[in-house]
């Protein structure tokens, strides 16, 4: 704690007497500066206790002198009496009282060097205390970082050390909060983070000063620390230490996570190759007994960030095995259990993902089952449905063998000329073509179903043939168009 004017005035051997500013004696003293200059502003940084004997001051010059000191941001003025002045000029005291500048009368018997020594001792003690506090805090944070609690424990320790709250954020949301109520600030902090590419940003939030600092990790992350009062020197060092430790811990966690996920993917490859004994041996050693076949297989399709977070959500779920396979997460569990519900719950916690289900899948059909679950998930994605089962998908016959996304893009491109024509309001070529193909090219039946004259239908099909640049008498062309119309 820095020495204040009140603390200095309380040191009885100095014999200081407070003349003005009793209500602001809590100001800390940054340093002591003796000078007889009437305008010392150029030599001051602010926060000093200025000492003078008033050699160049009188009743006329004192008011302007006091105002210059206030402009310079001095903490207070110590005026030595018994040399140039028997007492502090009345105009100086009156002006200081008016502008709120504390004035301490220094008796003749007290040398200025005694005041300087007192402040110097206090500054040195304060710096030592700050150093000790920083050292202890760094030790506490380091011990916490190497313990079993991980980044979450570091956040809790940091919040306690700065007597505030801490948030760890990444692109997807909040990775950690301490205490839990800090989660409520996440929205505002994320808005501020949009303004910060790297480095540090300080802003006010709900009565707190918030220090927002990016972390030097491969995945973009930031640490936000909120305190009721601005951080002091020790507090800033503590935050910097936490940034370094969190960055290191998160990078180590990332490498370890990648290793574990690569192992999971390798086990899926072993199962697909039929090397069950080896795969089950590793599964049992690392994660305990695997679920008993036959299995329900759920494929979850989403972006890279979603796949990473859904793996985090599934971690530790009993009776489940999961692994990334291509651009999907494959979840396996005992057939007839609650595998699907738990997989969908994990997916819902990270945002919209698309699920495909293959159930039941005997162990010897694992490779086919995984492919079926993936195809069903792709169909769900193409159709905008949260879930498609393989049984539902395979009911589509030949179309179930085509990648749904590829089929949709193919269909959109092939039928684009007809849809552009229909958007002009000059006819309904797409539906006319669909109905005509559905009724095997029978004009009368298709026209009756559409509610138009058969000559109108003939004109529409001729126009479609012209726009498509395809011969609609070709069975192959008709098959391609039928596939396009089903996507």
TrEMBL record:
It holds the Pfam family PucR. Gene3D superfamilies: PucR C-terminal helix-turn-helix domain. InterPro entries: CdaR-like_regulators, PucR_C-HTH_dom, PucR_C-HTH_sf, PucR_dom. It comes from Amycolatopsis mediterranei (strain S699) (Nocardia mediterranei). It comes from the Bacteria. Residues 429-486 form the PucR C-terminal helix-turn-helix domain. Residues 15-122 form the Purine catabolism PurC-like domain. Coiled coil: none annotated. This is PucR family transcriptional regulator.
